[in-house]
Amino acid sequence: MTHYHLLLGTYTSGSSSKGIHHFRLECAPFQCREWALTPADNPSYLALDEEGEHVYATHEIGADREGWVSSYRLEAHTGMLQVISTVPTKGSDPCHVAVSPQRRFLFVSNYSSGSLAVVPCDRHGQLHDPVAVITYGGGSGAQPERQQGAHVHFAAATPDKRYLLVCDLGNDCMYRYPLLDESGDGCPLALDKVQRIELPRGSGPRQVKFSPCGRFAYVMGELDGCVYLFDYQDGDLRLRQYVLLAESWGEQEHGGGELAISSDGRFLYASNRGDFDEIAVFALDEEQGTMRRIQRLKTEGVMPRHFEITPDGGYVLVCNQGSGTLQLFDRDEHSGYLTHMQQCAFVDQPACALLLPLPH
């Protein structure tokens, strides 16, 4: 499958982007054309539910304003979006949204206010005001410009669907909450049983991705440019390895961005912004999950905030936020190596790509 709907979340403030831009992408032979637009304010992150029926978008509209989260109905054949509802997240700069295991709640990460919003969602995609907003104080202060307070950047369920993990970039830690049954109307988190999982000072954990087998968790350190490997079993996370995205720390600025793991669990990909504008490729040990860097590749643009491996595994699409470019890379499924293939489009401040196979 090389034909896709591409839904592109963007920053619209101070840019020419207007919302969620919809493209049709063909990788072989290459063709990329804009198809439609769903107007929205700063839809910086997009998430699709497991049934492929609804898309959710965060609206990151400023540190001094309350942000929103919206739901859309997805038309599978056309890729068109129809807005269903929008609710406030009771915090500022919501930058990530994830759907709960039973699809009854959204977990929204409010970056600037350092809080997690738990938003009810019914099976039709209708959203309701948050049933809980968990605010984290502190700030590690290791990097004063970025860590004077909590900055929640990510929250998602573990593969066994028993726990929620929350990444707090400002406090250099993750929080683990047991997930409760979602049949009631209350918060589905056991708030009194939260566990704090520490990472090195100044690491700035941005997100976590699990291996397909579910035994290994990889955490992106945005501020120190490291990827951290944790062993995972029955809710227990134990740090075992870390690797640099670049050759050394040095004086250059790191900006760890997106993480993705190939569907066969053999390779991990990580973007590095700052002074690098690269994707690092790591071979993963099948038994131990350990990482070995095998490639560093320029993304042919500035500030690779996000990227997606195509569902067929053959390509990687990179969103270069700073240069406003989408770049397509060929992916060798046997070696894991990437090769630059084609610039897809110019889109001002692309922030998140969602690729959906076109139905036959």
Description:
This protein is mostly beta strands. It has a single domain, classed as Methylamine Dehydrogenase, Chain H, CATH 2.130.10. Helices cover 0% and strands 53% of the residues. The chain has no helices and 28 strands. It has strands at 3-10, 19-27, 30-39, 43-48, 54-59, 68-74, 81-88, 94-99, 105-110, 115-120, 132-135, 152-157, 163-168, 173-178, 195-198, 205-210, 216-221, 226-233, 236-244, 256-261, 267-272, 278-284, 291-298, 304-309, 315-320, 325-331, 338-346, 350-357.
Secondary-structure blueprint of this entry?
Blueprint: E1 3-10, E2 19-27, E3 30-39, E4 43-48, E5 54-59, E6 68-74, E7 81-88, E8 94-99, E9 105-110, E10 115-120, E11 132-135, E12 152-157, E13 163-168, E14 173-178, E15 195-198, E16 205-210, E17 216-221, E18 226-233, E19 236-244, E20 256-261, E21 267-272, E22 278-284, E23 291-298, E24 304-309, E25 315-320, E26 325-331, E27 338-346, E28 350-357
Q: Keywords for this structure?
A:
single chain; 360 residues; mainly beta; Methylamine Dehydrogenase, Chain H; four-stranded antiparallel sheet; 0% helix
